[in-house]
Each structure stands twice: as structure tokens, then as C-alpha cells.
Queue: 2 jobs
Job 1
Amino acid sequence: MLQCKSMQEALSKYIRAADYLSAIQIYLQANFLLEQPLTPADIKARLLGHWGTCPGINFTYAHLNRAIIAHDLDMLFVLGPGHGFPAIQANLFLEGTLSQYYDRIPRNRTGLAVMAGEFSWPYGFPSHSNPEAPGVILEGGELGYSLATSYGAILDNPSLIAACLVGDGEAETGPTATAWHLNKLIDPATNGAVLPILHLNGYKISGPTFFGRMSDEELLALFTGYGYEPHIVDAYTEEDVHARMATVLDAAVSAIRFTQHCAREGTLQNPPKWPMIILRTPKGWHSIPELDGKRITDNHTSHQVIAEFAKTNEEHRAALEEWLRSYHFAELFDGERFVDEIESLVPRQERRMGNTPYARGGAPYHVPLNLPPLQDYAATATCNLDDPICGMESSMEKIGAYLRDIMKANEGARNVRLMSPDETYSNKIHAVFEYTTRSFVWPRRDWDKDLSHDGRVLEMLSEHSLQGLLQGYVLTGRHGVLVSYEAFAQIISSMTDQYAKFLKIARTVPWRGAVSSLNYILTSTGWRQEHNGFSHQNPGFIDGVLQRQSDFTNVYFPADANLALASFHRMMGSEEEINVMVAEKRPLPIWRSAADAASDIEKGIAIWDFASDEDPHMVFASAGDYPTQEVLAAISLVRKEIPAFRMRYININTLSGGGLGNSKSLVQKHEFADYFTSDRPVRINFHGYPQTIKQILFDYGCDASRFTVHGYEESGSTTTAFDMMVRNHVDRFHLAMEAFAIAEDQGVVTAAEAKRLRELYEGKLADHREYIIAHGDDPIEITNWSWQSRS
Ligand SMILES: Cc1ncc(C[n+]2csc(CCOP(=O)(O)OP(=O)(O)O)c2C)c(N)n1
Ligand SMILES: [Mg+2]
């Protein structure tokens, strides 16, 4: 078909129109059709935007449209360099999607003026891809995440092709570098396909890119090595670049379909070799060749605004006008409609990339999970709380079993995945392998364990890739959870922050339907890193999350397996939140029955009666499993030493960006005293950095003299579990000594008695230190401590 001259004409007219529409967004506030000579009054006061990448995006979008029409493709477009948003917006306008979603942007000169005039304008359109733009599932402001996000989108969407335009600067990022390997996880029988298009416009902001300067041979070797079948389309050397791009795209579509067909009928012999395209175009293609003695087109200088002084400098304005007029836009658009050749490249409405239902959330792709009832998983032997072993359970093992059955219960929908950086076993969540496997479509060996071409678990030692997969999966309506070592979740903190920005806006966009929450479990926590020590001790990921939007971020600190199950159940059933659970993998005492746990997580904070007295002299609170164990141990010690001293214990299961408790049922200021009293001293034992809780308390107007917070003080090492807590002052002995001091202040014990107790406990700390140096482990009375009810 492409040999057909008219198709080439149509493509070049479409691209001319898209380039013009991209450019005027950056510059014009009036005279959008250039019906009069360009004057300073037509030009925006602040010229903001990125031009250089746009022509290559427009070229790609036009060609993808042609392929969609020719092959009736179900295609999603993921743009890596999100700063090329003027091009996205131009194409959404051209294909009619913008008018479909926004009445105030009709597909005529009025709408064109709104689109161009409000770009990069206060309270207008943002400069980068954003959730208000239909079809967008990635902002692309922070570069590097397009490829992994695309792979996430096509999982379990067998008819979908995600065309992913990766910038050559973006391709230098770590997250993109690792994401090329995701082809090894994609079973063509059950998933869609990603078509990566590496856009070599040769430059990033201020210099050449490595990829741009690599030879064709080097590029072909590299991407062949990654397992792709690379095709080069070179606008510099092709006699007819449209014919070449179309041929390559047709070949790519055929290859994808052939691979999928073979896999689906069970005849695929070798690991699939997916096609990819390496597209060389000049940066700022077809714009101003030179200005102020500098090369502009085909140079990094075209990256942002070219002719940037056009409002005040005549030479710049003349160059701008000449450039804009070179598109002869009036020949393509009469103010009401585009010429037929352009219309011929607009896919039917259901196939337009901006209108893809995959990127819209809600039905039909978002189906709430079928969550099995929790009672079947809860630790049933609710402890009598006096037995050291009774009810010891691993939260992570329980969650593994529950997740296994969630996968089973949603088998037909194929809409839940576990992302794990090589740690499904070590994080003790491997019960999932009783139902599923890890995906791996490359050669497998007989002795490989829990590996198959199609599994619900995606394992790769790249937190970036897993996060990208999860984002793509969730934003296309499905459900998942990423389980990470606590310390190394920090690697993706920034991705989470970017996602939170996307979510914040997406939640306000009326046509975006529901998507599930982005869920994390952090385990192998800092308190139990005897194996690994200081490098593995970092509870900082939650800080970034808690500083995000108050109305949709939650961090759960279940103190036992029943609370972990209840928290996980809430996370997996929730929508449009970011949820993080910090959970232990070793067995720990069960403090709460399933019913208690369900009621505790309603609010996310609860007074535990078994450890609390009426009219307390002081309040203890904790968030986290080991910190809770230590507080309860301290309470039982203090009760024994000073029977007349009354304490209350508060368990904080959930913090949110807005304060204490769940984002949907926060502890309000007027409720605060119901938990913490209005005047009693409070000691809080926290899983993470003390500062994290202090910020929250500040917002409740807490009096610093009444509250003391203990937590991880960056005092880590390779040492015993109990010593880690001693070093950070969250252990039972230090806490008990603080209670003795409060008892003295309140006149419950004499100064002499308080001194005696303090010295006794300082002695216990010294003995402990001596003991661990001599024996290499904590003494049994610490390890096997159990709660003693007051007799
Ligand atoms: C992670 C990250 N680092 C730095 C930047 C700043 N930045 C914005 S655009 C850009 C260059 C991008 O080059 P490329 O991917 O080649 O895009 P294009 O040439 O298509 O504009 C850089 C470094 C960023 N957005 N994200
Ligand atoms: Mg570039």
C-alpha cells in the first residue's frame, strides 16, 4: 500500500499539520492560523516547552495511525520523553480525541485556539504529558520509565500492542537500560506485545547521546543481544523514509502476530524475538536550520524553545514566522476541517490511540478483585497471651498463602500479579508457587524451580523495572503488589513520587475510571538484618510516601500476622491509593484475633485493652512489629516492678499522609485526646525514623514536652536482633527506665526507688551486652519472652 504515492502524501501532510500544531502551542497566543503577519502581540510572554523532540513523535504517531488502520490494531502509545507533550496534544487534536473528551476544544479553529493558547499557560495545559490527556498512562517528566510501563500495560492484554517511543537520552537512564530485558518475561500466548521505538534524534538537552553516536552495527549488535529483532529507519539516508518506516512497521506487526499465533497454537519453538525499531531523525526536524550563528535543527540547541526571543527580537521573530509558514498550514486546514488526506490517517474512533480504553481505567478492564474471606487464613489460636509459642506466625507466610488464593480466585480474569526482585522465597511469600510460577520465556533448565513461560510472578533484580511493570499494569485496570526488601525500596522512591503526582491529578479527571491501588510490601526490615547489617537497614521509603498527598497514601505497620492479613485485604480491595505495608517474615506472637484485627484496621489505630489500665499515669504507643513487642514487654516489666503504676497502650497500625490512621478515617484533632489523653506523658516506639512520627504529631499540635518518640536512629550494625533495638533505644529496658522516671515524676514511686530500678535496668543492659559478646546471640529469656497477664 505504501508504494502508493497518495499515502506518502497523506503522511507528510499529516506530519506537517502535527508539526505546525506542536510549534504554535509553544509560541502563539493569537493569530493561530497566521492569517496576518506575525507581530509581538501574537507571541506569548513566556515561551515554555520543548520543540526538538516533537517532529520525531509526530512522524511516529502518523505512521502508527497508518498501521492501525491497515492492520486494525489495538494500540496504546507510551511516550518516554513526556516533554514532547505539544506533539501528543497536536495528535489528540488531529485525531479528534481532544474534542471527544473536552467540549471546550472543538476540532475547529476555536478549539485550536484553546489548545494552542492554553499550552504552558497559567492554569492551562501542563508542559509535559499528564493524566488530563486521554490515552496517557505516563507523565514522562522524569525520564526512564516508558519501556517498563509499556510492558506492564500489555501483560494479560493479549490483543494490545504498546508502541513505546524511547528517547535516546532517556535510553541512557538506568531504568530504561534494565527494561530492555523485560522481553524475557513476556509469554506471547497470553500477553500483548511492546513495540519499542528508540528515537535517535541524536541529542539530549545539551549534547549528543551515546546511542545517537553509535554505529548501526553497534546498535544492531546491542539490541540483537537483548533478544530483539532490530530494524533501523534512518531519515538521513533513506531515499523515502515514509516507505521505509511503513515497511518496517508492517514487518513488525506481522512478526508480532506470527509469534503470537504460533505461541497461541502451541508451536512456538524458540524464545520469541520481538521486533523493535531504531529511528534516526534530526532533532528539531524541519525547523530553523541556523540562528545567531548557531546550528539549530539537528543539534541539541533545538531541544527547548528555538528563536526564544521572538517576542522582542525581530530577527528571531522573522525566523519563527518563516519556519511556521513553511508548513503551509492553510493548505491543510480551513478553520473547520482538515484535508481528506489527513482524515484518511485518522483511525476509527475505537482505535484511536488517545481513545484507547486500556488507558482510561474503569470498565471493562478494571474489575475489582474477588478477595477470599480472611477468616480462612487468620491465625486461629488466638493466644491466651501467656504462652511463649502459642500463635507465633510469620506475616509474610500468611500473606503468601492469601495472595496465592487471590490469584486462584481471580484465575479467569487473569488480573493480579506479584512483582518481586528475586526475593519471593527469601521474603517468605513463596506459598504463591503452590498455585503459580515465575514467568521466564527464555531457555529454562530441568533444575530450574518454579519457573515457566507463563506465571503470575514477575521476578527480576530491578526494582525500577518491577515498579514500571506494576504502574503499567495498574493504570490499565489490573491489580498487583510489589514486595521488596525494605532498605532497597528506596531505589524506586522517586518513581513512587512521580506516580503519586500522576495519581493526584488522575483522581480529579472525570472521564478517568477507577484503577486499583499501587501496593507495596516492605519486608526483610531493618530490625532483623543480622545477616547483612547496616547497609540493609533503611526505613526511609515510607517517608517519601507519607509526604505525598494526604488523602490517598497509607503506610501499614501490622504488629502481627492477623493485622497484616487485614491490612493486605484492605490494600488489595482499595482503589486509587498508594499503600505500603511493612511486614515481618519471621514468626512473631499473635496479639489480635481476626475480629480484633478487622476492627483495628477500620480506623488504623486502637487502644489494646489487655495492655491498658483505666485512668493511666502514662501512655505507650507503637507502630511496627518489633517496636510493639518491645513496648508490650516494657509494660509487663513495669507492671511487675511498680504494680500501682497505670499505663495505656495504643497500637498504631496505619499512618497516612494526613496523619494517624487510614487516609479515609484519620484521627481528627478533636479525637486525639481520646487516644493519647490530654495531659499524660506519651512514649512512642516507631518502626521507622522518629522524625517521621514527630512531623505527624506536630500537626496535631502536640506538646513536645509530653511526647517522646523512639525509632531507628541510623544506629545500625551487624549485631543481635535485641541489640539492634538497644542501640536505637526502642528496647524494653530503655522504655521501662523511661516509665520509672515518669512514675517518680508522678509520685507513684520515691526518687530512691526510681533510682534503684534505673540502676537495676542499666545493669540488665550491661549484662546483655556482655552476654552477646560472649555467646554471639541474645539470651533465651529475651528471645522467648512472652506476655504475662497481670495476675
Ligand atoms: C531522570 C531525568 N533526568 C534528567 C531530566 C532532565 N531532562 C529533561 S529532557 C532531557 C533530555 C532528554 O533527551 P531525550 O530522551 O533524547 O529526549 P529528546 O531528545 O527526544 O527530547 C533531560 C536530561 C529528566 N527529565 N529526567
Ligand atoms: Mg534525543
Job 2
Amino acid sequence: MAVAKKIQAAMEKSSWIRKMFEEGITRKAKFGAENVFDFSLGNPNLEPPIKFKKTLMDLVNDPSPALHAYMPNAGLMATRKAVADYLNKHNRKVCGPEDIVMTVGAGGALNVVLKTLLNPGDEVIIPSPYFVEYNFYMDNHQGVPKIVKTNPDFSLDLPGIESAVTERTKAVLINSPNNPTGKVYGKEDLQVLGELLGVYSRKLGQAVYLISDEPYRKIVYDGLSVPSVFDAYPESFVVTSFSKDLSLPGERIGYAAVNPEMNDKGTAVAGMVLCNRVLGYVNAPAFMQRAVAHLMDESVDIALYQRKRDLLCNGLSECGYEFLKPGGAFYLFPKTPIEDDVAFVQALQEENILTVPGSGFVGPGHMRIAYCVDDRTIEKAMPGFERVMKKYR
Ligand SMILES: Cc1ncc(COP(=O)(O)O)c(C=O)c1O
């Protein structure tokens, strides 16, 4: 078939997450779904908040005309205003609806921002391990990822980022709380990163932007909060979605926000609006835009994810696994007891435990466990985790 060579290559490489997902389907058919412990996908298992369904019912019964019509590419004014009001509760800067573009999830928001910023060959610094879809998004817009490994505790390696800056650097792309490590970057690190990027922007005579991917912002534990990048650096974008905190990943609703203090922010937003259109998204789903405008302060019950984290961490720690306890998101990124993380993940597979090798996130020697699953799945998988660890220790 006449599939483009680049796409053929991408299909062959496929992602590890997808491979595990497919392996899960095969194993579930063979052994029964209740006997396969699938920790491979970041698909939230909690149902959306009750208010979500109620809001949908009200919207369905709204007799106003043209509720499903085309709209301005940036999205509905009332929704953008609701997003700006929400952001203003969490940042010192004052956003308005003109700073917000509603998008098709965080993935859509990332593509909109990258397409808006990148000239062919422009470089984007990404701390690793990271969500590897970024590679495809970068390729979509002819950007070049420059990977900088994080510190052993998964915090930002700020001198490493500084050394990676070149005259082609257009942006630094961070994700906090992080997929796959669960790390939440500290306020001071963001402040120092902002200062560093400010220095290089002045040196290069053009802005080096900070893009902060934050779909897990509300999923944090032990009283932690996620510091604002808007407060740390004016040339910054936030991209996010309602996929994880409202458990709506299939509804494809999110947004991109520009720092209200960004230089030439009007041009940036106009570029994003155009990109939202010409990427074929046109606008974010209308019905969902109407719904989320009423749900800005809502989230699933985060305490339930914290309980899953603790169940998993306590269990794995007793089996001898080594890891850093995550501060947010719903992923654990333990070390594999052998260097070959693929072999270890395959050994877990033999116990019908599906995880993803850290190599799939450019974090070799680790594996990712997505614990957005039933508590029972975590409990029932533990003997298998223990048997495999015993084999290799
Ligand atoms: C770090 C990160 N960014 C972006 C996305 C994409 O989110 P969305 O489903 O809202 O497009 C994900 C999804 O797993 C993610 O983990």
C-alpha cells in the first residue's frame, strides 16, 4: 500500500504503550480479563464527577438555536472566560478570554502551539524521561527534539538545559506532574529556568519559549500544589486538558493559554487560532466546551488516586522494588532490577502483568506502571510482581 515511508517507519516502530495495549487484548481473550493486570495505559478508571452528567443533561435540554454550529476558531467566549477566571485563581497574572484557545485535548493544544512557533529545524529542549508522543508532534511541525536527562530524582537538570541551548532553540517543553515519573517540579526550579530562558532570549535576540504541558495539574498528593509557569516566566504557554482530572479523554477537550505578559502575545494567539483551524480541528468540540465552562473547579476524587498510589508503593516496596514516590499524576516509574527493562517487562508479562518499558519514554532501566486501575487489580497483581522480582534479585 502507498503509505508514506515516514508513516510506514513510525507504524513499524509503534509505541510501547500501544504494543502493551495490544498484548493486553490478546492475553485478556486467552486468560480472561479478570486475570490480566493491565497497567499499560493512562486511561483514567474513575468515572467523571456526577456534576458532569448533570451539566450534560441541562445542556441537552437547552432550547437555544445553533448550539452545534461552527464558532470562532478560538472557541466560545463564555468558555474562554471561565478558563481565564479559573487561571486567575492560580496565577498572580491576570488572564482574559483573549489569552485562551480551546483545543482538541492537550495533544491538540501541543500541536497548535508547536505549529505556531516552529520554523523547520527549530529545536525544542525536552527533559527525559518524557511522553514520547512529543516526538511525533515535533515531527509534525518539523521541529527537532533535544533531550536533556533529568536528575536522579527526576527534577530538572538546569545546567544540562542551559548547555543544550543553541541559536536554534525555540522552546523548552516541560510536563509537570510528569508522565511517566509523577514528578512535580518545584517553584524555585521553575523560577531559575525562567531566569535562564530570559538570559538566553536576550542573548539570542529572540524569545526562547517555555511550554508547560499540565493535564495532571489537579492530580497531586500529600497537599502538594503545582507552581505556576506564568508567574515564573513571561514567554510561556500552558497546554492542558480535562482528559485526566475529569476523566474525559475520549471527549477531546482542552485548551492552550498564553501568558498575559508575553511580548507580542496578540500575534501568538492569532497564530494559534489559525493553526487550530488549519490543522483541521477548526474548533474544540462545541458540546464539551459548553460543559467544561461549568466544571472548571471540579475533578474526580483525587484521594482515590492517592490511595491507589499508596497501595502500589507499599506493596512494591515490600517486594523490593526501588522507586521515588510520585507527587502527582497516576504513574509510578520504578527501577528495573536488571538493566534490560524490556526483558523485565516481558517477565512481568508472563505473570499477566502489563507495564511499559522505561525505554519507551527515554528512561531506560525503569518501567512505567499506570495505576489508574481498580484497587483490586493492584492487590491481585502483587504476588506476580513479587515472584518476578525474586527471580532477578
Ligand atoms: C504528558 C501528557 N501530555 C499530553 C497528553 C495528551 O492528553 P489529551 O488526551 O488531553 O490529548 C497526555 C496523555 O496521556 C500526557 O500524558
